[in-house]
Amino acid sequence: MHEPSTWVGKGQLLLAKGEVEQASAAFRIILEGDRDNVSALLGQACVEYNRGHYGESLTLYKRALQVYPDCPGAVRLGIAHCHYKLGHFGKACLAFQRVLQLDPENVEALVSLAILDLQTNEAAAIRKGMKKMQRAFEIYPYCATALNYLANHFFFTGQHFLVEQLTETALAVTNHGPTKSHSYYNLARSYHSKGDYETASRYYWASVKEINKPSEFVFPYYGLGQVQLKLGEIKNALSNFEKVLEVYPDNCETLKVLGHIHVQLGQTEKAQEFLRKAAKIDPRDAQAFLDLGELLISTDTGAALDAFKTACSLLKKGGEEVPIEVLNNIAVIHFEREELELALQNFKEALGDGIWLTFLEGKANTYEVDATSSLLQYKDMQIFHRLEEEGLSVELSRNKVTTLFNLARLLEQLHNTETASTLYRLILFKYPDYVDAYLRLAAIAKARNNLPLSIELVNEALTVNDKCPNALSMLGDLELKNDDWVKAKETFRAASEATDGKDSYATLSLGNWNYFAAIRNEKRNPKLEATHLEKAKELYTRVLVQHTANLYAANGAGVVLAEKGHFDVSKDLFTQVQEAASGSIFVQMPDVWINLAHVYFAQGNFALAVKMYQNCLQKFFYNTDSQILLYLARTHYEAEQWQDCKRTLLRAIHLAPSNYTLRFDAGVAMQKFSASTLQKTKRTVEEVRSTVDELENAVRLFSQLSAASNLHFNGFDEKKINTHVEYCKHLLEAAIVHREAAEREEQQNRQRLDLARQVALAEDARRKAEEQRKFQLERRKQEDELKRVRQQEEHFERVKEQWKSSTSASKRRDRADIDDGEGGQGEKRRRKGGKRRKKEKSSRSRYEMEDPDMMDDHDEPEDDDANVNFREPGYQMNDQEDNAEENTQDVLAAAGLEDSDADDDAAAPSSAGRRKRAWSESDEDEISERKQQPSLLRENSADLQDSDGEFRDDTHKRQENAAVDDED
């Protein structure tokens, strides 16, 4: 068995070589034989420390210290490092201090204590830490760790030459990978800060190579990614930043950088994801919200506006000044969303106080200019010299130029072009090289149809930058308007060459030039036309290859296809462009609506064409574009909707009264309407009258055009106009004849209708009168029936009452007869009393038989006399009342119930009364009265007698009985 010292030496050698497991085996061999071997304990403690088992390493160091308390300070240095790795910074600090007590010049202890001081991030502690580092450097100038920390300190103080010297020395004196990585990192940072990205990239790579994995030292990856972004190596930078994010997944700076990288790669969704995560992790990070707003400004203006406002709020809460760029972006978003007042407020807030407020508030003094000077007012700078002479400061800082330009652009939108032009001139007064201000002034002059001044202003912009593609493109447009086609083509070609064919607008302009050249050829050379169309298609396709979402290029390609007759393909293309343009608030493309309507028109789908023209007019031109109205009128004309065509042309004439073409077209529409109406087989008078009116108007219009002084200037042929006049006059003569005939026919029809109407009215009146007469008869019949029923009911009630009263009177007479018999007249009274009883018996029998007969009489149908009497209800009612009274007295008399009152009441002038008085003059009064009562009843109740034979028989029987009684 070898000596323990041999195994200790072998273990130390293996540990120095990095063979940790074999070194651990060597130390364990010793510890198995001698558990208190200090050298083996210290070696095994180093092994466990390198393994990352800091707790076990600390235990072994403590055990070695217990075995040999007088061991050197290096043992306590190991204990301090273990406490540091375990996070016991207080105990680590005490251990390092104990090492310095034992060995005041222990460099490692000084460096470690300095690191602990630096990590506190307190100014006093940092100063103490740097003093300790400096002392360690003085004790041992070749301590790589001290050199690295000193280099880091001098990096932040800007002393880069010291950084380079210290890091180069550290690299020369150490072979430890992590330490060398720190040295390379410090050196790379120094070159990075100086802008030497190539050298910085090499040193960052060297630092990364000394690391086994990013978690050991991640800063070089971050620096390398930054340098690669500067060098344009975007994908390599993305890879390095993703490694940083793996170590620190919630690092906001890394998330923001990754968001920017994905923006450059066109991966906007991932970019938004990273930036939103950064803003969520740190809601107080204003920069995260600013970056998010910049990203969203092209896709979601609402979210971008919210992000910018949040950033402004955070900056204001933190006491920081809001950058003018942020306020400008907020104002621009409001401007694009057509929230013009909010945009104006934010522009003013961004600009603050300045001379521009004088112009906005209208406080600047104006001065008189003559007519010649007014044409050149967009180039006039005298107002600013006058303001300076008045003592006003005409200053404009460079960072406010863009915002002031945007404010002027907003004023243009608000139709305040005078103030806008003043602000543009203010920009040019302070910064004559600002090309966009020249172009906007040229646009204002162009809008006022001052093409020479507009061209002059564009040329001044080109003197500042003769390769400016915007200026060249605008100049080409102006030359086209000036009908200078050759110059326009050269200008557009120069604009395209200025950007090596990358300027889409210049390429589109060349395509438009070729298209217009194809369709404006008066001779319509088919070969030349096809050549220009093919060239235009090629240019539009080139733009689409570069920018697949370019709507204007797609629209141009659709126009070329439509000109070639490929209507279905062009219609699909126009529809896609229309949908894409409708979904964006930044694009206004009325042309694609018009082109789509043209395709519908060419396919004969006039209804859809009309609808598309009308929608375009309403959506983009507020129904005020005479050219689109002309397209609409042409569609109505082809659809044979003459009146709609005429009305549309009249609207266009109202908008453009000097356009003689519209007047001619209106006359043709009237002529066509009149001819079509006269060709009808059936036409109304109103149609013929309308035809006459239209022809008179057409003759008037064509006559005015024929007499126009500038007829040839408008392209009209006088002979053709006169032909229209003669034809309309001929139609007018025929229409007048037709009108007269139609009016005569209408008069005859009206008379026939009036006669038929009168006959119908008379028949209707007769029918209504007959119905009314029948109704009145029926109503009177019902009323009489009701009256008769009511009278009979009343009669029945009176009979009942009289019968009750007569019964009581009969009883009183019986008692009186008994009293008279006792007085001495017995026989005669008995004879009379017998007669009375017989009469009462007969009366009761008669009444019992009469009552049902009277009730049955209500059901008897009316005879002819009743129908006659129905027309004289007044007399009938009086007769009925008299008959009712007589019947009542007759019934009572027949029943033997009459009294003196009844005889007095029966004195009314009637046939029954006269007969009763005749019978009363005879000697036998009682018998005659009894005989007369039945006859009275028969006279007054003829209907009852006719229907009831038993009643008559009963009367004869009573008369016979009365005669027998008299004989007795």
From TrEMBL:
TPR repeats lie at residues 73-106, 218-251, 252-285, 590-623. InterPro entries: Ctr9, TPR-like_helical_dom_sf, TPR_rpt. Signal peptide: none annotated. Residues 850-866, 879-888 have a biased composition (Acidic residues). The keyword Cell cycle does not apply. Residues 828-841 have a biased composition (Basic residues). Residues 772-803, 949-960 have a biased composition (Basic and acidic residues). GO terms for cellular component: Cdc73/Paf1 complex. It holds the Pfam family TPR_8. GO terms for molecular function: RNA polymerase II complex binding. One of its GO terms (biological process) is transcription elongation by RNA polymerase II. Keywords: Repeat, TPR repeat. Residues 772-968 are annotated as: Disordered. This is Uncharacterized protein. The lineage of its organism: Eukaryota, Viridiplantae, Streptophyta, Embryophyta, Tracheophyta.
